[in-house]
Amino acid sequence: MKKPSLAALFTACLLFASPLALAADDGGKDAAKEAKGDDYAQLPPFPADRTVRQQTTIDGRSLAYDATVGSLPVLDEKGRTIAEVMFVAYTVPGKDRPVTFALNGGPGASSVYLNLGALGPKRVQFGAEGNSPSDPATPHDNQGSWLDFTDLVFIDPVGTGFSRARVPEDEAKKKFYSTGPDIEYLSRIIYDWLVKNDRLMSRKYLVGESYGGFRGPRITHFLQTRLGVAMNGLVLVSPYLDPSADDNGDLSPLPWMLTLPSIAAANLERHGRLTDQAMADVVAYTRGDYVTDLLKGRSDPQSVERIVKRVTELSGLDAEFVRRSGGRLETQAYLREVFRDEGKLGSRYDSNVTAWDPFPFAPAQRTNDPILDGIIAPTTTAMVDFITRTVGWKYTGRYNALSYEVNKAWERGEEMDKGSVQQLRQSVAIDSKLQVLIAHGWGDLSCPFMASVLIVDQMPVMGDPNRVRVAEYPGGHMFYSRGDSQAALRRDVMKLYAAH
């Protein structure tokens, strides 16, 4: 059994324009290819970088800052521009300011979620229960912003936001839409921004969310060992570190160990009993009696009874449903079952965020995830308005908050399956001062916190054991959509930055 990975959750629909009809001979093929290449070459240029002065209030203090929207080219080995990457930078005048680079995931997600949801100076509410796509997408001062202690640069990978390839689709797939090339050009974008802005000597940090958390250790290691730039700290928000961790649920107990604590957290939250101690008890059971009874299987006939009894208590589900599943709660089945009586679906990204199920009698879920579909409108509207009107970076292309085209084109090969745990260990080993914070929402079933807990616990202690740690907060994948959890993340991150 293999549960759907985070990357696989995007709807598999291809929206690219139809390819040119194939000519009858090789010359026709070459002509078609040349014509298509010319189309890319004739794309209108991006506007010049543009900066405006803005103001926000953080922690009761007014802060003036420069907001810059701009782009950097991606060059091939011949110096040809093969893509243009858009960034949004927030900088505060002053000496010795650190700079933080931020990336989201997908693959196929722009950086708008970290920008307008978690770290940036302005915030738009999305991703929590009760939020609607048609709510006013009005930015407000972000009390959880990091801008008062670090400059911020948000990067949109090729095919997301307004960032675009300048080569045909087949070449773009090879150059950008797989693990190795993705890490290499994004690392170079960070390097180029530092050089362009005379910031190579600044303290440097990287934050990645979801698949951006997969990117984080790999970019850090590539910068360290290939481009000669060392990060001072790494913050991984709901990271997707090991895609193979949930493989083979028919034999391995690991897939069920990863998700049970997040299901229990959601149930505790629904009943107002979610506390650190309650979750410590859940984790202790998962690591102890639960995994032991799973491994016993039919060698101990009472093991199933013990599992069913305890998992029913932890999940709040009907005992017969738990019994039929053998205490092994498959994520999508759980998300349909937990709110079935209300005619709703829970989200994989936060099972307590719901939407109506338009096909409640279908044998399997037929609609996309409630959170994924619900956050595209507010984030896109707010970001395009900010870029084109507030900053005045005038561009008429389509803004891709979530690109299903990129996700479908992505090459999920051996390197992606390997995850990024190896690069995380190597980066920490290379730099004895590197600080790493791995932040999760307890209720996230797409990138469950238990995976990171087990990954870190299996790492050797390299110096101070606290310089790589996991922190959990109420909420789901975007736990920062809840004010208290966002404030707690900010406090933990400030401690990490103060370590240098």
Please specify the SSE layout and strand pairing.
Blueprint: H1 26-41, E1 50-58, E2 61-75, E3 81-91, E4 99-103, H2 112-119, E5 122-123, E6 140-141, E7 151-155, E8 164-165, H3 169-176, H4 179-196, E9 204-209, H5 211-227, E10 233-237, H6 254-270, H7 276-296, H8 302-315, H9 319-324, H10 331-337, E11 344-347, E12 350-356, H11 370-390, H12 404-409, H13 414-418, H14 421-430, E13 435-441, H15 449-457, E14 468-473, H16 483-498
Parallel strand pairs: 4-7, 4-9, 9-10, 10-13, 13-14
Antiparallel strand pairs: 1-2, 2-3, 3-7, 3-8, 5-6, 11-12
Question: Care to describe what's here?
Answer:
With 500 residues, the chain is an alpha/beta fold. The protein has a domain at 50-243 and 375-498: Alpha/Beta hydrolase fold, catalytic domain (Rossmann fold, 3-Layer(aba) Sandwich), CATH 3.40.50. 40% of the residues lie in helices and 17% in strands. The strands form 3 sheets. Strands 1, 2, 3, 4, 7, 8, 9, 10, 13 and 14 form a 10-stranded mixed sheet that branches. Strands 5-6 form a two-stranded antiparallel sheet. It is globular. The relative contact order is 0.15. The model is unreliable at 1-38 (pLDDT under 50).
